[in-house]
Amino acid sequence: MKKWVLYYLIISLLFGAIIYLITLFQVTQEQTNEAFNQITKELVETQDVDTFLRYSTLGYEPIERFEKEDYVVEIIQALGSENGQDIHQLVVIVIPLDLSRIDYATDIDDSSDQSQLILTSNTININTKIDAPYKDYALSVGFNTLGFYYYTIIIEDDFSGRIILKDYDGQEIIDDMITFNYEFNVMAFVQGMSEEEIESRILVNDVLNEILITRLLIFAVIDIVIAVIISIILRRKAL
Predict the structure, then answer these.
(1) Total domain count for the chain?
(2) What is the 3-state secondary structure (H, E, C) of 68-90?
(3) Do 107 and 168 lie in a common domain?
(4) pLDDT per residue over 11-58, tens digit each?
(5) Which residue in 143, 121, 119, 122 sits closest to 131, CA to CA?
């Protein structure tokens, strides 16, 4: 085998591998975004947070559900992970029933947004208008982007206290008492999705194979044409 053919074959294989990796990354990102968008759409349409929470957490325990005139509010304790360590989070999800009846931010820097979560107990005192990371952002912009928005607060102890939730105009959505234990109730705990369940929603392999075959066929045709041209040029030089 001529030396240039060997070099060309190696370079072609490298380009083929690069095409595969780029395609894999692009398809995975696109399919992951598509799956997430579909899940958030289902949440807004059904006011059911189960699929969203199972997809985005390691598991969760329902605490309270409030159904108000303009909103549904779900309060849950979620199991997450940070730097390889399990963390417990209080998650408050706010779902609008009819966007045409409420005000909300269309820009994350909207200074008029008075959306706010206040938690008060013997162990926790949180006000999202004062405390990071929410104090500088208009949270109700989530209505415009996701169709809902949510707060996540890391907790390290049992909670028994008051929760106040305000909307864009500063009107109270809820003002109530909630109680839950830091340790999950095994009977109420809902396990997050397995890798197999997530993969079945993302469908990377099905889409990847179709796109990859098309791209590699195009590359192969171009690759062969270039190889033929190089061969012709080298033969003419040898004459």
Answers:
(1) 2
(2) CCCEEEEEEEEEEEECCEEEEEE
(3) yes
(4) 888 988 898 899 888 888 888 888 899 999 999 999 999 999 999 999
(5) 119
